[in-house]
Amino acid sequence: MTHSYSNTCDEILIVRYLDGDLEAGEKERMETHIEACRQCRRQVVALRAFSQDLRLRVHHATDSVDFVALEKQVLNKALRQYRSRGGFPRFIASLKYILPATVTAGVLLFFVYSNFVARPAPVPVPSAIINSFTGSMSSVMIFETPETRQTILWYNEDTDVKSEQNAV
Amino acid sequence: MRFRFRCLLVFTVLALSWCSTPESLLAVESCRISVDTILAARNDAVVDPQLKKYVGELQSMFNYTSYRLLSSESLNLNVGQSGMVSLPGDRRLKITPRKIHGSRADIALQMMKQKRTVFETQVQLLNRGSLFVGGPTYQNGNLIFKISSAY
Amino acid sequence: MSKTIQNRIVHDEELILRLQRGDEWAFQLMVRRFRKKIFSIAFGITLDTEESQDIMQEVFLQVYRTIGDFRGDASLATWLHRITVNRSLNWKRRWARRFRWLHVSTDNTDEHPAAEPESELPSPEIRMANAQTRHQIDNAMRMLPDQARTVFVLRELEGLSYEEIADVTGIKLGTVRSRLFHARKRLKEILQPLVEEGI
């Protein structure tokens, strides 16, 4: 036993071992330790089993999804987006060539516009991001409007669901 | 003439660099928080002119027909300082800006009814953006609180 | 989108170029190539099938909209992973799901430990067919903090290296290590009853 962790339980090393992050020598010593230490062996087995279960769990969920139908939906939505924007990606690509020519004017416009006029974001971003929420109430919904992404927090402080039904 | 032109040039460059300094570099220590209390109902189709800007968007999410502005209150709050707004139905909203960074302000909100805390939330509110907090039943409709920040 | 997908190998670089030219066929190919991966990551983080399907669609549509901005400083897969992780972490902002989700998690934690002691463990496949086992895994995952769960999912489901995880999540390598460590430590605590039973 040349290294201390060959006969002591080191959580960090166990995690690195599970991640395959140990050097060959370290790995060998860890395996020796695991063989001798019932507690660590149980931990390794339990965590490995959990990872395997998780993979199967996700696999199980994946199996229940109709990916063909989803693909169709995505393609249709993208196509609608494309038509309504008149070929958005191509337009973006063409901007690459126009941009250098207009950059000076753009920068000047940006300074003036961004400092002296109210600035709506060019691409709408959520008006508010809810980082945490705790409360005692019967329900809460957090959503945003489709166009300008105004964040709405809708809560129902009563036990009845009458007010909640007003939200579509 | 040439000197004047140079002065003007230097002034323009200085002004532009001041204008272009990212807000994140300039420490913003306070912000103005406004709370508008709106009564949304379905008994008529009255929409307050001040709310017209938002109603179109709200209509896509709710099925109310009228939006009335009951009250508006504004607070100038420093980071870390708390302010309280009184709301209908014996409600109070405690607002505390925690941090201001870039285009968003971290704000803690605590909604109280009588002496009970209904909820506490931490939000990142966009500068000049609004968070709509709604739900409580009031009179013949529901209250919506529009909480906005500007700094 | 009438063109069918050809069976030849198209590398990501070519795919990006075609996407930037607005090639619908390339878009279809990308969807087909990454749909399961994106769904898996979204599901690992949200543990919600319906929501993960929505996230998957949103990710592809976002890519379609913004492919012109793609500078190639990361691989297409990393970019897609990044968008998926961000979208998945933001999923709770919608409707009532966060509330319901948190409550399911808290309630069940109190009533049923995430991994109930079992004297004998059947094969994972058989156990997975059992709704209770799925429920236990979901609960254990829900008990992990968002950031730790994300890192754990990228590592365990996608097999990403520490460096790749750092790239996708935008955190430092050391933080990846510490989040993974905390995720496993927390899982170890959650799975303790199982460990004590002696498997």
- Quaternary structure state of the chains depicted: heterotrimer
Number of helices of chain B: 2
Indicate the radius of gyration of chain B in whole angstroms.
20 Å
- Average of pLDDT of chain B: 82
Order of helices and strands of chain B: HEHEEEEEEE
Structural class of chain B: alpha+beta
**Unreliable parts of chain C:** 1-7, 95-122
Task: Describe, in plain words, how this protein is organized in 3D.
The complex is a heterotrimer of chains A (168), B (151) and C (199). Chain A is mostly helical and 168 residues long. Chain A has three domains: 60 residues; 48 residues, no CATH class; 48 residues, no CATH class. The longest helix of chain A has 29 residues. Chain B has one domain. Chain C is mainly alpha-helical. Chain C folds into two domains: 94 residues, RNA polymerase sigma factor, region 2, helix turn helix motif (Rna Polymerase Sigma Factor, Chain: A); 105 residues, Arc Repressor Mutant, subunit A, CATH 1.10.10.10. Chains in contact: A-B, A-C. At the A-C interface, helix 1, helix 3, helix 4, helix 5 and strand 1 of A face helix 2, helix 3, helix 6, helix 7 and helix 10 of C.
